[in-house]
Amino acid sequence: MDFTSFARDLIDIDSTTGRERQAGEWLARRLRALGYDVREQPLERGCANVIATLGQPTVVLSTHFDCVPPFVPSRIENGRLYGRGACDAKGILAAQVAAAERFRHQGDRRIGLLFVVGEERGSDGAALANTEPIGSRFLINGEPTDSTVASATRGVLRLRLTARGRAAHSAAPDAGESAIDKLIEALVRLRQLPLPADPEFGPTFYNVGTIVGGVAPNVIPAHASAEILFRTVGPPEPLLALAADLEPLVSVKEILRVPAVRLRTVPGLPSATFPFTTDVPLLDRWGEPLLFGPGSFLQAHTDHEHIEIDELASAVDGYERLIRHCLAQAP
User: Does residue 98 carry a pLDDT above 90?
Assistant: First the structure.
């Protein structure tokens, strides 16, 4: 199988989150043409996860085929494959299919494929897939881990802080109450809180991703809000308790939580912890998870996203080795 051409064909279909339908249909056609039994698992928003099997799988290879915007078509330059999704995660998907093909050609029907939508924005594809597991013992998820096996990944906790004030003419400040001032004070207090730390992960960190507030420079703002994404190192409850201390100034609403996870490693293969979050915690009914993939997450989401073609080729061998490890553990 020419995994480079497969990856380029997929990269050249715009599947930024919310636009995955065409890419999913293409994947389903290609996998059927290779001889897989393919089921498309539809979401209400008009796209579908793609599940491919040859029988009852013991091991399922999985990743996502949605990407962050903007769409960037593929190109090859200096031994690198460029384009949106080259390393996150369409190149990985191509390597997984190539690895599965090795087993199919050997007559081994115990390998399945699960390709989901929506990972970059809330993981609705993984959540739906987890309602219909297919009895696999192991799930090998693909994300750019520099071709090392992940021993652990951080979780996320996404909060919305909302401040409410009282609108007034800015020439009469005593008549109003600034919601923006309240929000700023809450964010300053947040920086001073003793956030949880972990010996393996290190300290919790966070990003204030959006701030919205006010209607005009000459109006004291009655409303302001911010969304914050914490990269968590353990259960979210300690963070929620700390955030409750901000509530005299703002209301706190939980938007999303995904737990930190510790994962199976493989003797003889390098392993490391990673600061990002994946679909793995949301696919816990698909078997014991492993996480591995070529490329660096530092290249993902950038305007120069790329992956070394040689590393992509080596990843096919890496997935084969992980599959054999898992099959050896199965009864």
Answer: yes
CB neighbour class for 191 (10 Å; exposed up to 12, middle 13-18, buried from 19)? exposed
Could you tell me the sign of the dihedral formed by the alpha carbons of 188, 273, 331, 113, in that order? positive
Return the residue matching tokens 């070529």: 294
- Answer whether 87's CB lies under 8 Å from 307's CB: yes
77 is catalytic: no
For tokens 């999913």, the residue is 24
DSSP class of 327: H
- State the DSSP H helix or E strand holding residue 151, giving kind and residue range, or none if neither: strand 149-153
The interaxial angle of helices 309-329 and 3-11, nearest 10 deg, is: 110
Distance, in Å, from the CA atom of 76 to the CA atom of 82, rounded to the nearest integer, reads: 6
pTM: 0.90
Whole-number pLDDT of residue 26: 99
Query: Among 2.60.40.10, 3.90.10.10, 3.30.70.360, 3.40.47.10, what is the CATH number of 155-258?
Result: 3.30.70.360
Q: Check residue 69 and report its DSSP letter.
A: S
pLDDT in tens, 167-222: 999 999 999 999 999 999 999 999 999 999 999 999 999 999 999 999 999 999 99
Structure tokens at 283: 């696919």
Confidence of residue 331 (pLDDT cuts 50, 70, 90): confident
CB contact at 8 A, 24 and 47: yes
Instruction: State which amino acid sits at residue 330.
Output: A
3-state secondary structure 15-46: CECCCCHHHHHHHHHHHHHCCCEEEEEECCCC
CATH number of this structure's domain 3-153+261-329? 3.40.630.10
In the chain, what are the domain boundaries? 3-153+261-329, 155-258
Strands 138-141 and 205-213, by their bridges, are unpaired
Cβ count within 10 A of residue 21:
17
List residues bridging with 112 in a β-sheet: 60
Catalytic residue among 119, 227, 305, 311: 119
For residue 113, give the nearest of 105, 103, 121, 122 by alpha carbon: 103
Q: Are 97 and 1 in contact (CB under 8 A)?
A: yes
Please say whether the beta carbons of 67 and 119 come within 8 A: no
